[in-house]
């Protein structure tokens, strides 16, 4: 990885996107290891995790993860999902967190030297460009090794550094004896 020891780093994790990317590569993220890895690369200022939650359920399968992250160094950004019926009459659930993530990146940019974005969503290309104009380096973490690739080509090209998620697997994967069978966090599709 290309970090400087005195660099102020901010992590911005698109929860559903990272979950889907890791799942497509066949491993689960150990978020304690992930936090430790980037904290060892520079001065970790803040780590944000974005996910939408189904509020109307008595028990949400993602709630234990959200609670653990909240107590273990992540700033949680959540909002309730929205339910709607699409044009074909199918019930859909949506929980897009793009605006929340973009606002937090822009607000934190003056306090950071390096933004690490865990997402492959091409909608973030303009955000990356705007932050770069403020003098902040941007690393995008996602994968091109899944079928189809989980990172938009325009986002990967805009980033100063692209880290292939699969290359981080040895450092951030959960022990192989444990498989997370919870449903994916709801969010960006």
Automatic annotation (TrEMBL):
Gene3D superfamilies: 5'-nuclease. Residues 8-165 form the NYN domain. One of its GO terms (molecular function) is RNA nuclease activity. InterPro entries: LabA, NYN. PANTHER family: SLR0755 PROTEIN (PTHR35458:SF2). This is Uncharacterized conserved protein, LabA/DUF88 family. It comes from Magnetospirillum fulvum (Rhodospirillum fulvum).
